[in-house]
């Protein structure tokens, strides 16, 4: 993902709690190995992101420029306040599929006329900006972010509509795009469409359902059916302008609220529209200028070892992202496998849950449930740092109530109403992924480090389970068991699960909002906290029944 700009330089402020010490040895061979592995993974991520930035390739970029069009990211840059950050979302969507990395659309959050807005920009250099199944997922996620955080949604439209060869996967879920726009409007979240080129067929409803519409003279074309389709359906002869041109919609149909002279003029009008929205944040402002962590963010490159089975103290991560490295730990001697506590991050109060040794026992689950309740009582957002293999299994733990205690933690996460932010820094397996607020639990934002892995369980454990099941099946049937075949099966399963656990694979399916450089974690979380405070920040005391 693109590296966001840092907030304004920090100043010392009053702090409470204890300064975290560090035991990280940046001169050790283990640190050097971890750092090198992280940099290698980051280079791979950057190479894939470069494919999205390149659009449809030089040929299609030049063709678009020859028509006088700006590229999607150029439009975004001109729309944003000069020098302000832009947090790009889901840049690797569609990775590993038959479609272009990035899914022919750019989404993200940036500041327009002083207001934080969600932006969705079609990339017309990729198959004419047409929508494929991954485009829908990525755009729907952007709309969800706008809804949950009550930020205006700006559509920069230039799209030929659905990618017709995949219509069977697009038509039914595609209707959600229009539903989302109307629900945002009904909820008082402004929606704006700046139409730069084609917005045809189903895409015509995007400007039709936005609160504000800007079209570009001699460029914008908005119609349900173009001249060839109209000719085939009705026999009527028509041209682009009389059927759906910008001037017609501004003077005759009334669909266009503003008629821009060119693309830059459309972006100027868009900025003016946002300035007139008179938006104010509903959440509390930060407590004051924030002190930088005492330890360099650069050291986060060497925190996570290449082998995730090696224990990592999450306090080393916390110390490098929270204000002044100050952390008030909650229940430090109880449920030590989960670190919980209070801090501030860019001046915003937060509660943090971070996995220590990777396994969640009953004590950790109960501790988490109580901590989440306390955060809700204090209207305090929660940050989850994932590095867990899941909840503990075995006779002793089953008899000790691990199911009901794990369920208690998941119950608390599910019903908590303060904003949640998840960062997968290491393993995130099984129901532990759920208890730590995985994607299915609607965190406001979820990001992954390149070191992250996520699946139903680890590759080796899953292969072992399948091997045991196969052995038992053969024994019941009185058949010999083929050890060579078993070895081959295990290797195949391990390779498959490892590949499907990687951040590239998961980000390609829009299961996270992007893979970030560990060094940007503090900045990304600070931006996301700011975004979330556009909406009220309120906790709840309404939880499901906790089984004791």
Description:
The structure is a single chain. With 548 residues, the chain is α/β, with parallel strands linked by helices. Helix content is 40%, strand content 17%. Helix 15 (430-435) links the parallel strand 15 and strand 16 (445-448). The longest helix has 25 residues, at 29-53. It is globular, with a radius of gyration of 25 Å. It starts with 17 loop residues before the first strand and ends in a 16-residue tail after the last helix.
CATH-defined architecture of the largest domain: Alpha-Beta Complex
Task: Tell me the domain tally.
Answer: 3
The CATH topology annotation of the largest domain reads as 2-enoyl-CoA Hydratase, Chain A, domain 1
**DSSP helix count?**
19
CA distance, first residue to last residue: 43 Å
Q: What is the CATH homology-level superfamily of the largest domain?
A: 2-enoyl-CoA Hydratase, Chain A, domain 1
Radius of gyration, whole Å:
25 Å
CATH class of the largest domain: Alpha Beta
Name its key features.
548 residues, alpha/beta, 2-enoyl-CoA Hydratase, Chain A, domain 1, 17 strands, globular, disordered N terminus
Task: Write the topology of this structure.
Blueprint: E1 18-19, H1 29-53, H2 58-66, H3 72-79, E2 86-89, E3 105-112, E4 115-122, H4 133-149, E5 153-159, H5 167-186, E6 191-199, H6 205-209, E7 212-216, H7 227-234, H8 240-244, H9 246-253, E8 258-260, H10 263-275, H11 315-318, E9 326-330, E10 338-345, E11 348-355, E12 359-360, H12 362-377, E13 382-388, E14 390-391, H13 395-399, H14 402-415, E15 420-429, H15 430-435, E16 445-448, E17 453-455, H16 459-476, H17 483-501, H18 503-508, H19 521-532
Parallel strand pairs: 4-5, 5-6, 6-7, 7-8, 11-13, 12-14, 13-15, 15-16, 15-17
Antiparallel strand pairs: 1-9, 2-3, 3-4, 9-10, 10-11
Helix pairs in contact: 4-5, 12-14, 16-17
């Amino acid at each position: 993902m693109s590296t966001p700009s840092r907030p304004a330089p920090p100043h010392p402020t009053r702090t409470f709690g204890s300064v975290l010490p560090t035991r990280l040895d940046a001169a050790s061979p283990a640190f050097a190995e971890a750092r090198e592995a992280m940099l290698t993974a980051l280079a791979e991520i950057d190479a894939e992101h470069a494919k999205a930035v390149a659009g449809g390739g030089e040929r299609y970029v030049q063709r678009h420029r020859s028509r006088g069009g700006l590229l999607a990211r150029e439009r975004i840059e001109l729309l944003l306040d000069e020098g302000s950050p832009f947090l790009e979302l889901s840049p690797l969507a569609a990775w590993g599929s038959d479609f272009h990395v990035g899914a022919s659309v750019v989404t993200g959050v940036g500041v327009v006329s002083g207001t934080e807005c969600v932006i969705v920009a079609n990339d017309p250099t990729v198959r004419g900006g047409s929508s494929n199944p991954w485009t829908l997922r990525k755009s729907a996620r952007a709309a969800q972010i706008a809804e949950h955080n009550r930020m205006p949604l700006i559509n920069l439209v230039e799209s030929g509509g659905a990618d017709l060869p995949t219509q069977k996967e697009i038509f039914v879920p595609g209707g959600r795009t229009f539903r989302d726009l109307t629900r945002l409007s009904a909820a008082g979240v402004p929606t704006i469409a700046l139409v730069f080129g084609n917005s045809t067929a189903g895409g015509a409803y995007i400007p039709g359902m936005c609160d504000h519409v800007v079209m570009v003279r001699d460029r914008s074309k908005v119609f349900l059916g173009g001249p060839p389709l109209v000719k085939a359906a009705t026999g009527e002869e028509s041209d682009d302008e009389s059927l759906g041109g910008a001037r017609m919609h501004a003077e005759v149909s009334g669909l266009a609220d503003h008629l821009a002279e060119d693309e830059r003029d459309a972006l100027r009008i868009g900025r003016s529209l946002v300035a007139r929205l008179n938006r104010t944040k509903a959440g509390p402002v930060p407590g004051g200028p924030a002190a930088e962590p005492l330890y360099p963010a650069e050291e986060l490159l060497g925190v996570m070892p290449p082998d995730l089975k090696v224990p990592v103290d999450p306090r080393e991560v916390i110390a490098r992202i929270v204000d002044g490295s100050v952390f008030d730990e909650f229940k430090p001697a109880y449920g030590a496998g989960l670190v919980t506590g209070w801090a501030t991050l860019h001046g915003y109060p937060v509660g943090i849950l971070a996995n220590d040794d990777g396994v969640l026992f009953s004590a950790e689950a109960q501790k988490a449930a109580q901590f989440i309740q306390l955060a809700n009582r204090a209207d305090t957002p929660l940050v989850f740092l994932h590095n867990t293999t899941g909840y503990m299994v075995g006779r002793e733990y089953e008899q000790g109530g691990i199911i009901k205690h794990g369920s208690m933690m998941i119950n608390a996460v599910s019903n908590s109403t303060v904003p949640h932010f998840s960062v997968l820094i290491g393993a995130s397996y099984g129901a532990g992924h759920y208890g730590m607020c995985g994607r299915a639990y609607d965190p406001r934002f979820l990001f992954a480090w390149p070191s992250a892995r996520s699946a139903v369980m680890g590759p080796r454990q899953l292969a072992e389970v399948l091997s045991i099941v196969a052995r038992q099946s053969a024994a019941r049937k009185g058949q010999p068991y083929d050890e060579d075949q078993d070895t081959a099966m295990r290797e195949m399963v391990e390779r498959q699960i490892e590949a499907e656990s990687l951040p590239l694979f998961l980000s390609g399916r829009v299961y996270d909002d992007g893979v970030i450089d560990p060094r940007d974690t503090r900045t990304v979380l600070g931006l996301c906290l700011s975004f979330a405070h556009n909406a009220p920040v309120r906790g709840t005391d309404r939880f499901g029944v906790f089984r004791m």
